[in-house]
Input
Amino acid sequence: MLKRVLVANRGEIAVRIIRACREMEIETVAVYSTADRDSLHVQLATQAVCVGGPRAQESYLDQRNILSAALATGCDAVHPGFGFLSENPEFARRVEEAGLVFIGPAPEVIEKMGQKSAARQLMMENGVPVVPGSEGTVDSPREAAGIAAGLGYPVLVKASAGGGGRGMRRVDSPGEMENAFSTARAEAEACFGDGSMYLEKLILSPKHIEFQVLADTQGHVIHLGERDCSIQRRNQKLMEESPSKALTPALRAEMGAAAVRAARAAGYRSAGTVEFVLDKEGHYYFIEMNTRIQVEHPVTEMVTGLDLVKEQLRVAAGLPLSVTQEEVAITGHAIECRINAEDPAKGFLPSPGTVEFLHLPGGCGVRVDTMLYPGYATSPYYDSMVAKVIVHGASRLEAVRRMRRALEELMIRGFATNQELEYLILYHPEYLKGQYDTGFLERNLQELLRERGEAGGHVF
Ligand code: ADP
Output
């Protein structure tokens, strides 16, 4: 087994990884920026090393400093968490070259899946349905318009290196192509330093359905069912659940088999996610593969009883997965709400501050992953997500009711959050039916905000 793991991340995911290591009696080394001196992950790790200044570029993205910290503290592996360096093939390669284990897939696999147009190609070759679109990348608005004419509008212009919904534009008619293509490409160049673009048909009102996969170095590849991540704002996930109301057992088996095929084709190891959009007729299309642990992984843990980070650690140590596909049983229903320090009433403006009072929900079937504690000051330098509330119930209805009462109990004083908005979503008829699609929040946001406003801050 591994002896000492450097956790190259911060916030709740760093805490999450440290907890798994601790239960496996693996020592941990936290890294932190000068802005995170008092962070929970620093306090929970066996030891901690400051790797630079507050801006991510100066610390959590500084490969050299992080590697030096790993070597100086005698680590044998590095867990990258999500975001930051987690999908950076160069970092994974440098970790391996330094003689350490990178907890994730091989650098070549990260690289291949990170180029979404190349990933699409690989899926097509392996019989995984992809969204109709361009073959490979598209170089100009003119070429894009030519392909779009064949596909039929609306289409999506997407950045091959894209992530977090950036570098993506919807195009409804030929007249919009020039502008959409150029702005999406400029955004991709600015965000990812890579302006390669490709084209996909826009699937109207789809659901975002993703499959969790696990693979070890002995050739076992399994899936752990799906997550429905269709409650999104600007292509960013807000609430997730497992299983999805939209899948029949037959469709689940088919999509799961496609996800396993995708992971096998990629030569995958560790935990990963195969993302699809699912249309109203039950057709599913691959959109991308994420080569890391994801924010929403706890809903899968709740319904399978597995610890995905521990599985990652086992695989990194060369051990086989702890379960076979036949042994995976999905029990009950789980929902996750991401709690972000942002104000929905002010256009979701980030709202940093100091935690003046904190009460976390508990009781049967409730889990909270967070780095918050009373007196903790959030930092404007990092992502606004401060907590994840996850519930498990015997049925979907029980999970929904449990999440409502968990959000009623949750009290974070000191800054605005999206907690009330999520609470109202849990009462929306469309949500209750489970038939919502990725356009749900945009369609209903004004109504939900009005409800919130009318309640005068007393929605609970
Ligand atoms: P990113 O890596 O930036 O998150 P994705 O390719 O995963 O980009 O897409 C993000 C979201 O955009 C998806 O969850 C889905 O809601 C929407 N989306 C992506 N591709 C399509 C498509 N072809 N048709 C409809 N919606 C899409």
Observations:
- The chain is about 35% helix and 25% strand.
